[in-house]
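Reopening this ticket.

The earlier resolution said the output was attached, but the attachment link was broken on my side. Pasting everything inline this time so it's all in one place.
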Amino acid sequence: MSFSYHRTVRFQDTDAAGVVYFANILSICHEAYEESLRTSGINLKDFFTNPQVAFPIVHASVDFLRPIFCGDKLLVNLMPQKIGTEKFEITYEITLAEVVVAKAITRHVCIDANSRNKQALPTSIVHWLERNRRDTEEAERRKAREVIS
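Inline output:
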């Protein structure tokens, strides 16, 4: 996977039934997204407060495969990919003890923050996407070699 983020589920993440509240899994995914940007050298303060450009989420979906409880130690693997000159998508795989417990997708579009019109992705995001694509491809090749061996 291109980027991995470790996260322990907190009580505040859960609902009255004691499982992760459905919307909070997207919040956890967003934490992983932010950390991926930060570790790629993108200044988060500048990224999220830039008055010229914004990256709103235009689509999100989550599939829950198993319940997730307070105290669970999650591994969030994220794989971003460019899907157009002004769009990118991030696929998330959330695992617990090597078992996939949820999958999510967020689709983002780059817009001019003032006019709200779509615009091309800035160079910093294109580099982030290319770096993660290469990391994902390398991980997939390593995984394929392990299966063959």
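Reporter confirms the inline version is readable. The mean pLDDT is 91. The two ends are 20 Å apart (CA to CA).
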